[in-house]
Amino acid sequence: MRDGRDQDEDDSEIRSKIYNYIEKNPGAHLRMITRELQLGMGATQHHLDVLERSGRIKSQRINVYRHYFVMGVLDTEHHILAFLRQETARDILIYLLEHPWSTQSDIVNFKGFSAPTISWHMSRLEEAGLVRSVKEGRTMKYSIIDSQGIATALKTYHENIWDKLLSRFAELFIQISSDMKEEDD
Fold this sequence. Notes:
This protein has helices spanning 4-24, 30-37, 41-53, 78-84, 87-98, 104-111, 115-127, 147-157, 159-184; strands at residues 28-29, 57-62, 65-70, 102-103, 131-136, 139-144. By secondary structure, the chain is an alpha+beta fold. The protein has a three-stranded antiparallel β-sheet, sandwiched between helices. Strands 4-6-5 form a three-stranded antiparallel β-sheet. A hairpin with a 2-residue loop joins strand 2 (57-62) and strand 3. The radius of gyration is 21 Å and the shape is elongated. The mean pLDDT is 82.
């Protein structure tokens, strides 16, 4: 039979595991934490509640999910980090970093999704204040409102994605430099 101290140690270990996961993955939501750490839903909810009541983490409901952050993450970063945790939203934001003022058709072609699906994602990004749209005739164009904020979040919390972006920018720079040199010759 286990005594109370063993259970307390187990609980403390699980809470540390959850806290460390949130620290490395700010903006994670309950299902993501449960799946990645292979914990039960009820146990994860309990430990998240204990961590939040103790002031070690905070949460914010953004769209459908409640997202979790360690206390050091700025409130202004919450929306950015929550959307960067979602693959489609993250892909669209990165695409818009590289291709500002893209049309809905550009994004549809990039993602290979239907226009209504992209429209739904774009409206969520606009509602969150991450993207703005401008209508030119019958065409809707999109751009990121705070490119620096998104770039900083990628650099700080998604180093592997940031490194890929830097590599693509470096390749583009080399190509442009090479093209310009050929024109000069």
